[in-house]
Amino acid sequence: DAKTTQPPSMDCAEGRAANLPCNHSTISGNEYVYWYRQIHSQGPQYIIHGLKNNETNEMASLIITEDRKSSTLILPHATLRDTAVYYCIVSATMEYGNKLVFGAGTILRVKS
Amino acid sequence: EAQVTQNPRYLITVTGKKLTVTCSQNMNHEYMSWYRQDPGLGLRQIYYSMNVEVTDKGDVPEGYKVSRKEKRNFPLILESPSPNQTSLYFCASSLKMGVVKTQYFGPGTRLLVL
Known about the structure:
The complex is a heterodimer.
Chain A lengths: L8 E5 L4 E6 L7 E8 L6 E6 L4 E2 L4 E4 L5 E6 L8 E9 L13 E6 L1
Parallel strand pairs in A: 1-9
Antiparallel strand pairs in A: 2-7, 3-4, 3-8, 5-6, 6-7, 8-9
Chain B lengths: L3 E4 L2 E4 L5 E7 L6 E7 L3 E10 L2 E4 L7 E2 L9 E3 L8 E11 L2 E6 L3 E5 L1
Parallel strand pairs in B: 2-11
Antiparallel strand pairs in B: 1-3, 3-8, 4-5, 4-9, 5-6, 7-8, 9-10, 9-11
């Protein structure tokens, strides 16, 4: 079973910030939060990850609550090309890599 | 350019006719894996490999075989395909992001078994 809960869908206006929530109340101390997205049957694309601090990269920001039971992915200026399914995944990192368990994700529709 | 390639990208076959889907990565990654994606079931891991000659079952290995004779290649073999293996298949290899390693996915192979 997926360890995360996400809303099934969200809409966002083009140019506005998209805030995608994720609940992971049973997260363990050694588990990271990862975000991936999948654009129309393409291969899932890595976006960002974090452990307990907020993170930012060229694609997005990740805000993790202090108790680590939830997080929010922020796309600061959504474009039509950001329309995709967004997956929030919690996983322990290992020496060779990690196992990703994908849930249903959130369908983000960016509208003009 | 760093990439994971899969071939073929689309394949239609008939029940029982053996097929192989190739996966290759040019990033010298040790870890590689195969997933399948089905409507309503999400992505599920089939097999993974931590290094050459080291493979292990994922969550849905039945009906599939893999091999890892060289680091760059990780083919998925369907010895006797059945219609319930009609799916979208993704290969992935490990991706180092800071202190963690996560996964980098290929473009996918859409398989239809008649």
